[in-house]
Design a protein that fits this description.
The structure holds two protein chains of two kinds. Chain A is α/β, with parallel strands linked by helices. Chain A has three domains: 97 residues, Elongation Factor Tu (Ef-tu), domain 3 (Beta Barrel), CATH 2.40.30.10; 107 residues, Rossmann fold; 84 residues, Ubiquitin-like (UB roll) (Roll), CATH 3.10.20. Helices cover 18% and strands 32% of the residues of chain A. In chain A, the strands form four sheets. A six-stranded antiparallel beta sheet of chain A has the order 4-3-6-1-2-5, covered by helices on one side. The two termini of chain A are 19 Å apart. The longest helix of chain B has 24 residues. Chain B starts with 17 loop residues before the first helix and ends with a strand. The chains are: A alpha/beta, B alpha+beta. Chains A and B meet through loops of A and α4 and α15 of B.
């Protein structure tokens, strides 16, 4: 408890599952339980040189010891996906934050899932879950070609609920045909490239509010890069300044000099250790704050979160 | 059903007898010392009492789900006494949306708007007790009433009075009928145990109290700025269904009152019986949250919860058979010497972080930040005005199948 080893994952499996797509299975170095998640959740993975990428979890949440993510090689990307494809190997260790969920499944008797390319990843556990609870559902899944579309084998068992649209065989996803008639009891989940999200927003413009839920998998540029060097934390209540090395959590470092800091889960989930940030930019690793709350930068959870800047001043 | 003798130590106790409820510590020690898991024959029940096993069972929702009930009654075979909770008695995926909606409504950031008002309310409550009721403050009267010592029942006057003053308002309940909250909660927590005399005692009022609670969960009954309204607003966004909203409000009314009352009672008892700790709190009022969590560890207002094995689950060399109930003794885990130094001592110098008094994992108390804020407000108000707390007479326990509670805490408050 309290050391930062808890936010590391080791690559246990790496597999090519489609043209340009690999899946990684990730586990605790000691094989321990991972933080809970629900369909739609993603983790922040910190790759070599501090680059952070967000990957949707697409494994089985009933397996508490393993995460699975799918990674598309992005030709025009910033190097993160190329690193995962070309260099990251089984046995390598990456840092992670979260999981966080901005794309949570809401209760509904009927779902329409619309995936474009690698946008299938957050929808895969949703499909599983919709099936589990006996909801009425369908999946529209488009991609450049059949060979580029991941997880077709896993989807095959769902039979005619799954509608595949490889662009080179079947053209673009027939959104209008599916969405012309607003449905009173359907929630639409869509993940994919920007043009698909724009098109589906247009296609559902006449639907009642809150029925379309989307996630852009091309995440916005994150802020300052995550650092793996030590940083300084000033504990404002006593004026004490401590150096936090990579292997220690801010919470553990603060306690080591006698700070009183109540916590509970120490996984960035329960919120007990919420602490005001008086100066500096926190590197948020929790599962709690929404994006706008992260951006505000006025509080953090020192059990898991760290610092982007050389120095943080905390109300501790 | 045939019961083969399980290869685990047998501990022949009744965790729900009045003898044990009066003082559960010897039973807790016996179960802890028997092994990582023990078997209680009279209920054909497995039990974990050590910190590591209790914590591991709490977080393992995959193998120890809650959907078959978190009491002794197994919903696979027995009809629940009320429609099951969408939070406490539900598992993923059905548990996801209610929890995702409620957690931010009760988060520390969402509660910031209440802090100032609750602190003022606590100051006002304490002033009323120490200075006499407002409106009767003629000069002489005030002088007379400004006694050095005030004697009161700290359960009724403080531990119950403060939550009942602020929490129903925060939920958005109308004023009438709030006296039903404590008896309803008391019965709900008794109902997790066996059908003993404590359950029978509550039975005559169950229908009436349940109807009242259900009526308070309706949208048009609730104020438009409370936790209840925020839950209903989530149903407008489609994040939960309109059918789920009232049951989630019901969870606040069931789990949010008695637990906090008894947590505060535990804390006041601990501080009154450990004067050095009261002095420490007065010297450092920022220890109020630690004091409350240490009291929750030390007394464990919620003593026990159950899970049901979804598959055969190995624990410490034994196997909990699929479909069997397992009793988790949170109170025993919170005093396990394998985890805590000097666990029977209430000590504000201790870091109580990681106690399981609020549970742990997916079902961990979603209202814990509300309870801490109530405690912080009340303890702060008392610390400012009271130099010393002392027990004025022998306190009396209130017996409940789940809760460790005080019925009365006669106390003398020495005013500064």
């Amino acid at each position: 408890m309290g050391d930062a080893q808890g936010d590391q994952l080791v690559v246990t499996t790496k597999e090519v599952v489609a043209d340009g797509v690999v899946t990684l299975e990730l586990a605790r170095p000691d094989g321990g339980r991972l933080p809970d998640w629900a369909p739609g959740a993603h983790i922040d993975v910190t790759l070599a040189h501090g680059a952070t990428r967000q990957y949707s979890l697409c494994g089985d949440r009933w397996d508490a010891h393993s995460y699975r993510v799918g990674v598309l090689r992005e030709i025009d990307g910033r190097g993160g996906s190329a690193y995962v494809h070309d260099e990251l190997a089984v046995g390598d260790v990456v840092a992670f934050g979260g999981p966080r969920n901005d794309f949570a499944m809401v209760p509904s008797p009927r779902y329409l899932f619309v995936a474009g390319g690698i946008g299938i990843t957050p929808l895969l556990p949703m499909v599983h879950q919709a099936d589990l609870i006996g909801a009425d559902w369908a999946l529209l899944y488009g991609g450049r070609s059949r060979s580029s579309m991941a997880f077709l084998d896993e989807l095959a068992r769902h039979g005619d609920r799954v509608h595949l649209h490889p662009q080179d065989e079947a053209g673009l996803l027939p959104l209008a045909a599916w969405l012309d008639e607003p449905s009173a009891d359907t929630v639409v989940y869509c993940c994919g490239p920007g043009p698909l999200l724009d098109a589906i927003a247009d296609a559902t413009a006449h639907w009642p509010p809150h029925r379309l839920r989307t996630e852009r998998f091309a995440a916005a540029e994150l802020g300052a890069p995550v650092r793996d060097e030590p940083f300084e934390v000033e504990l404002a209540r006593t004026g004490t300044t401590i150096t936090v090395p990579p292997q220690l959590s801010v919470l553990a470092a603060a306690r080591s000099v006698g700070a009183t800091a109540l916590s509970s889960c120490e996984q960035g989930v329960c919120g007990t250790c919420e602490t005001s940030v008086l100066a500096g930019v926190p590197d948020h690793r929790d599962s709690i704050l929404a994006d706008h709350e992260r951006a505000a930068g006025d509080c953090m959870f020192p059990c898991v979160s760290r610092s982007c800047t050389d120095r943080l001043v905390l109300d501790l | 059903m045939t019961t083969t003798a399980p290869p685990v130590p047998t501990v022949d106790v009744d965790p729900f007898s009045h003898e044990v409820l009066a003082d559960p510590l010897p039973m807790q020690a016996a179960l802890r010392d028997a092994g990582p898991v023990a078997w209680i024959p009279r209920y054909d029940l497995y039990a974990v009492a050590r910190y590591d096993e209790v914590r591991a069972t709490l977080v393992d929702w995959q193998r120890f789900p809650s959907g078959a009930g978190v009491g002794l009654s197994n919903f696979r075979y027995e009809e629940p006494w009320r429609p099951p909770s969408l939070l406490l008695e539900a598992d993923p995926p059905h548990h996801d949306a209610p929890r995702a909606v409620l957690a931010p409504i009760l988060s520390p950031r969402a509660l910031r708007r209440l802090r100032e008002r609750w602190c003022a309310d606590a100051d006002d409550l304490v002033a009323g007790l120490l200075d006499g009721a407002s409106g009767r403050r003629s000069g002489a009267e005030l002088d007379r009433r400004r006694a050095d010592v005030v004697e009161l029942d700290a359960v009724a006057a403080l531990a119950a009075a403060f939550p009942l003053r602020v929490f129903p308002d925060a939920v958005g309940l109308p004023p009438a009928g709030r006296e039903n909250l404590l008896p309803y909660g008391d019965h709900a927590f008794n109902a997790f145990g066996p059908a003993n005399d404590l359950v029978a005692k509550g039975a005559p009022r169950v229908a009436e109290l349940s109807a009242w609670v259900a009526s308070q969960c309706a949208r048009d009954v609730l104020s438009d700025d409370g936790f209840g309204a925020a839950i209903w607003a989530a149903s407008d966004r489609g994040d939960i269904t309109a059918g789920q909203a009232p049951l989630i409000v019901r969870s606040l009314l069931t789990a949010g009152v008695d637990t906090t009352v008894h947590g505060l009672g535990a804390c006041l008892y601990a501080l009154a019986s450990n004067p050095a700790q009261w002095d420490r709190l007065r010297a450092r009022p920022d220890l109020a949250r630690v004091a409350f969590d240490e009291a929750v560890r030390w007394e464990s207002p919620v003593q026990t919860f159950f899970r049901t094995a979804d598959v055969d689950v190995p624990i410490g060399g034994a196997v909990i058979p699929e479909g069997h109930k397992i009793l988790m003794l949170l109170g025993a885990a919170n005093r396990d010497p394998r985890h805590w130094d000097d666990p029977d001592t209430f000590d504000l110098a201790r870091d109580p972080s990681g106690h399981v008094g609020f549970g742990m994992g997916l079902h961990q108390c979603v209202g814990q930040h509300v309870a801490r804020l109530e405690a912080e407000a009340l303890l702060g108000a008392l610390a400012r005005r009271v130099e010393r707390l002392e027990l004025a007479a022998e306190p009396e326990r209130h017996h409940n199948n789940t809760l460790r509670a005080w019925g009365s805490l006669p106390m003398r408050l020495h005013v500064t």
